[in-house]
UniProtKB/TrEMBL annotation:
Extent of the signal sequence: none
Alphabetized UniProt keyword annotations: Transferase
Single annotated GO MF: glycosyltransferase activity
Protein's name in the database: Glycosyltransferase
Organism: Tabrizicola piscis
Length: 363
């Protein structure tokens, strides 16, 4: 059965790497592995970063109407898909295409990682929030990647249908390498862009200052427009940092396999696919207990989580990991089984197929 896939924030074929693009691609792969024929319905990016930019909202509305007309004409000529699946609609990037098409053609509408927050209802976002909420209510199913998102949907739309799907990766490239940790070698993988990413790097710089007396070296994988800011924030530790830039997945896997601890505070992190990759490579994780991070890192089992925003607590946990090799080893031994049992591509493929099968059956 054909599934029309749409990611309004960032299409799977978008040229800029990100966790959103990676998750979109993985969902398409999992759907295909589960027997669906996945068709990228549209590449229209419905991103509205400024709540006061009414002109941008008006231009987007016109573009969305054109896409609805284009797809409707195409489906009239051939046949509509079995369902429409929208990945990650939220207040800055609503789905303006799927709901009207599903209403017109009588198709099941499904969302994955949809979110809604009443505090974002300002300016043009009040309107886009309303459209997201309408979509949640219209959806035959809203698939949530975290319990936090599921609770948010339940609060906004109590009658909306929801189900959980754990965040996942294909762990194969990371499982293929045997860990050979270099004692004291820390590693982080993160884009360098303004906002939460820069905030996490700044948090990390402050925490590292509190463990200067210990032997460690940090590998930083990532790049982006905020790199000068990140390098400036970490300048006091420059002699201990290896700037590796953006790397292909195979090189990321090799770098992770040679490290002892994966460190990333995760300010504002929804959940973080990089945490899953690190655990698949056999690394214990040190992060903050932010948003959905506790749902991908098992505190005390595959890593340590400290209170969000608490730099001294994070530094103390890092000191503990750097000075207690047996603790690091115990945590590392549980990481790969954790990923295979809860966060693998195989598990997600089966879960998705089970969730969507009733909606794809002919009526």
């Amino acid at each position: 059965m054909q599934v029309a896939f749409y990611a309004p924030l960032k299409s799977p074929d978008h040229p800029v790497p990100s966790g959103d693009r990676l998750m979109a691609r993985q969902l398409c792969t999992a759907l295909s592995a589960g027997g669906a024929e996945v068709v990228l319905a549209s590449s229209l990016r419905s991103y509205l970063p400024d709540p006061d930019d009414q002109h941008a909202a008006e231009r987007l509305a016109v573009a969305a109407e054109a896409e609805v007309a284009r797809l409707a004409a195409e489906w009239d000529r051939s046949a509509p898909p079995g369902l429409w699946l929208c990945y990650h609609p939220y207040y800055k990037s609503p789905d303006l295409i799927g709901p009207p098409l599903c209403h017109r053609f009588g198709l099941p509408y499904v969302t994955i990682e949809s979110s809604w927050s009443s505090r974002r209802s300002i300016g043009i976002w009040a309107d886009t929030q309303g459209k997201v909420l309408d979509g949640l209510r219209q959806a035959a199913l809203n698939i949530c990647l975290t319990r936090r998102d599921q609770a948010g949907i339940a609060a906004a739309a109590p009658d909306a249908a929801t189900a959980l799907l754990a965040p996942f990766i294909d762990p194969t490239p990371f499982l293929a390498l045997d860990p050979a940790p270099d004692p004291g070698r820390l590693v982080t993988v993160a884009m360098m862009r303004p906002g939460d990413k820069v905030a996490s790097y700044q948090f990390l710089a402050q925490a590292l200052a509190l463990v200067e007396d210990l032997p460690w070296r940090l590998s930083v994988i990532g790049d982006g427009p905020a790199r000068p800011q990140v390098e400036a924030d970490l300048a006091p530790h420059a002699a201990r940092i290896d700037w590796l830039g953006a790397l292909p997945q195979a090189e990321i896997a090799k770098t992770l396999a040679r490290a002892q601890i994966y460190i990333w505070p995760g300010c504002g992190e929804a959940y973080g696919l990089a945490y899953l990759e690190a655990q698949a490579a056999g690394l214990p994780v040190l992060a903050c207990a932010t948003a959905g991070v506790p749902e991908v890192v098992a505190n005390g089992a595959t890593g340590l989580l400290t209170p969000a925003g608490d730099v001294p607590a994070y530094a103390a946990a890092l000191r503990r990991l750097l000075t207690d090799s047996s603790l690091c080893k115990d945590l590392a031994e549980k990481t790969r089984p954790h990923i295979l049992a809860r966060h693998s591509h195989t598990a997600a493929t089966q879960r998705l197929a089970n969730l969507l099968a009733p909606l794809l059956e002919p009526t």
